[in-house]
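Rotation project, supervised by the postdoc (A.L.). Task for the rotation student: set up a whole-complex structure prediction and record inputs and outputs verbatim in this book. Inputs entered:
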Amino acid sequence: MTAVIQTEKLTKSYGSHRGIIDVDLQVAQGEVFGFLGPNGAGKTTTIRTMLDLIRPTSGRALVFGIESSADPVAIHRRVGYIPGEFALYDRLTGSQTLEYFANLRGGVDRAYQASLIERFDLDPSRRYKEYSKGNKQKVGVIIALQHRPELLLLDEPTSGLDPLVQQTFFATLRETVQSGATVFLSSHILSEVEKSADRVAIIRDGCIVKTDTVEGLRDLAHHQVELRFAGPVPADEFAALPGVSDLVADDHVLRMRVAGAITPVVRAAARYELLDFVSREPSLEETFLAQYGQVPVEVTGDGH
Amino acid sequence: MAISAGAPRPTVAASFPPIPLHRRLYGFGSVYGKTIRDSRLAVIIAAGLFGGLSLVLGAAIGTVFPTPAARLEVDKLVGSMPASMVNLFGNATLMGPKLGTLGGYMSWKYGALFGLGAGLWSILALSGTLAGESARGSLDFVAAAPFGKRRIALEKLAAHLTMLWLAMAVIAVMVFVSSNVFGDPSLGDPIPLGGSIGFALWVGFIAMCFGGLALALAPLLGRAGSAAVAGIVMVALWVASGLNVGGPLVAVSPFHWTVNHIPLVGFYDWTGLATVGVVAVIFLVIGVELFRRRDLGVTAGLSLPALPKDVLGVRGPVARAFGDQLPRALAWGLGMGLMGGLLASLVGSFANQVGKDTTITKTFATIFPGYDFATAGGWLQLYVALFYIAAGFAAATFVSKWASDETEGRLEEVLAGPTSRARWVIAGGVAAVGAVVLMTAILALGIGLGASTGGATAGDAILGSASLGLYAVAIVGIGVAVGGLWRTSLAAEIAALVVVATYLIDLLAPPLKMPDWFHQLALTAHMGQPMVGQWDAFGIVACVVIAVVGILLGAWGVTRRDVAR
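Outputs recorded:
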């Protein structure tokens, strides 16, 4: 599959301040790629480097096979971008703002622009400074979408949007992807990446710590397993199984953490009479926290 | 709610309507068009100010010096001045007898003001056009459009140059019209169109040169840093050239390169002017290329030392507001103090030279009634009058800083605490007054040091500087009142307009023989001559009352209106 985005040891430093270090990414055409990281991890720096808004200290970023610093205009022509933080022109109305950015691209399909305005329920007659935070964000979203870009670079795109508008946003995003576009979605909100992305990269302190599918990242985490036996708890047998740790026996209940495949635990448990078997699949959020903060994954829900 | 109503997406891209040419030139059709649109108010103000000044000066000079004898006195006056001072504003030495013409007097006395004023406009515009938008955050959107950063910079630059030269065209036309309508042909007053164009070219090239310097520095220093450095360089090079202090400062001064270009009296130095133009273009090219090559929005800034939190002000509203004002107060104080010190150090030699000749003293008294030109203090008073404009603009920037709490969206957060609206206004007003006091103290120190070496009484000079502070606090009061009663986004602008109006009324009302009550509207007409120890109690009281009442009005007004978001 063609790589729409490819970064090779992409590094950016701001003097003595860390930016990003040796970031290697590959995003395929038609993919929704989640880019996760806490505040200050380097998400925005990575995106701005791809657009040649800032230049890499070393390494390179290729978008559509074009090195970002070699021909940024060719890249911009095919990209829609929502910056993580932006301000627009206070005295212009929403429609004037959209018109301006449409004109900078040589014009856009007015019908599609109008459909986006309607869909996001934006009142285009109001001045930008009069908009609420969410409505300002809607203007940014429409600017990024209105020219039907092949690649969307979205830096925390749902910031300020209410849940209903977020739903509209992700519905629009799905349609855009169905028509062949690629999405690079930077966020620190794990749930929105989990439900929309095919693959995810996690960046921490400027370095990519993991790149995998959403499912693959979930498998990284320890499953939390709880077995309720009809008879005595055979703790020693389970302690010897591969991947099992943190065994706690409590009356007829045995709790454990299981890393990797859960099959050995299931087989061992099958030899006993069980009253209940609970295995909680970790959310991406728990995986994420485990990656970042070494926070242990706890069973708090009742997922099976 | 229509947010879930999905609009079907066309499967075939529609053809886009072409962007009309007039929208590309003015409006939302291009970066150039939008920048032109954004500059419309600035060009109206600049062209109005410069064009109006050209017109009014023509009328005023014709009125004040109507006869050949009066013109002769001007020649004598200038000829009697110390050589080091005579060319500060314009090259009187080269003009010789032509100084007595309308164009000569206009060049000598006001020519530099045109260049410095247009230069300031250009510095503010070109330091902010890219760096300001970058700092705001909208430039990321523009830069993600399908054309390069060089084109963005060029379009913004072209828009500013279009507006600058439009204003210069207005100057050329108005100087031509003014001199031909109000001038006396028998005295050689009418200025040919070529001369007025030559003058406008000089003003425009000076503006381009220092604006270009600001543009070149902006990617490195950001908006404020580049504007400050370019502004300081412009004033320093003007003073160095005007006083002919010698050394490298004069050699690199565009004012020095064009010192023989006095087109309003028919002297042209196209080589000198072209040199300024070439340097301006080099600066502009550097600015565009640095913008293209450097990271967007990443500036080195000026490495100022970190201030302790007590200085920055975190203890309460007044301390915080004063902490915000502190850098501006220091910058204005140091700038005006240096300039004041320099001028004050020269007044002794003026007084010695002029005081020896009663005829010349009388001539000066005709032009500037009420000043004692036989004393250093009298000369100091004459030049300090110019500082009222600077002090007024400083006050307007303090008002702007106070207003930024609301215009930049911090006010909601501030008022969410136990601080009341009225307290916020009063704290901001008090802090702005504190900034004026600090600025004035530094200025007074500079003027006092200069005066002690220049023969004026240092005590009078130091105390006299307080008049500038008094005027500035009155302007603060006006600005805070406007901000509280009406809107903060216009407070600084209206305060600045009051400063300009005050200056023009005080300058032009007497020579144009306007009614006295009209002249008395200018607050500066009531300040006496504090540099020689003559104070006008009415002016002092008026300044204090305007400041106090203005701040209280602002505090009252802000409780009666919505807080802007």
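Student's summary: Chain B touches chain A at residues 1-10, 13-14, 16-19, 23-24, 28-31, 34, 136-138, 140-149, 293, 295-298, 565 (CB under 8 Å).
Supervisor addendum: Chain B has 26 helices and two strands.
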